[in-house]
Specification:
Number of helices: 1
Structural class: mainly beta
Strand content: over 45%
Helix content: 10-25%
Mean pLDDT: 85
Shape: globular
Distance between the termini: 8 Å
Length: about 100
């Protein structure tokens, strides 16, 4: 499981993400605060451009959490739970791995 935190206070931008690789695809749940507007979502990436040691065709797709394909729903629920329990850094750029 990987955790990412990107924060640029000069632009009021704060991105927090947690991800896991399942079946050769990286599933990411993120929250974003951009100029005081909050949003969240799920991104699924696959293939050699995104996942190490993958020979399949590259793939990426973004979803709202409630629209994730059934195959990934339990995984996303677990990611959301882990995301909410993570103590995020106040640093500008951190990989919490």
């Amino acid at each position: 499981m990987k955790k990412y935190h990107r924060k640029y206070s000069d632009r009021n931008w704060d991105y927090r993400a947690i991800s896991i690789i399942i079946d050769g695809r990286e599933v990411i749940y993120y929250t974003l605060i951009n100029n005081s507007k909050k949003s969240s979502g799920v991104e699924i990436y696959g293939g050699g451009n995104y996942v190490v040691d993958s020979d399949s065709k590259s793939y990426s797709k973004s979803y709202l959490a409630k629209e994730v394909p059934e195959k990934y729903r339990n995984t996303v629920l677990k990611l959301i739970s882990k995301h909410s329990k993570t103590k995020w850094s106040t640093a500008k750029y951190v990989n919490l791995n």
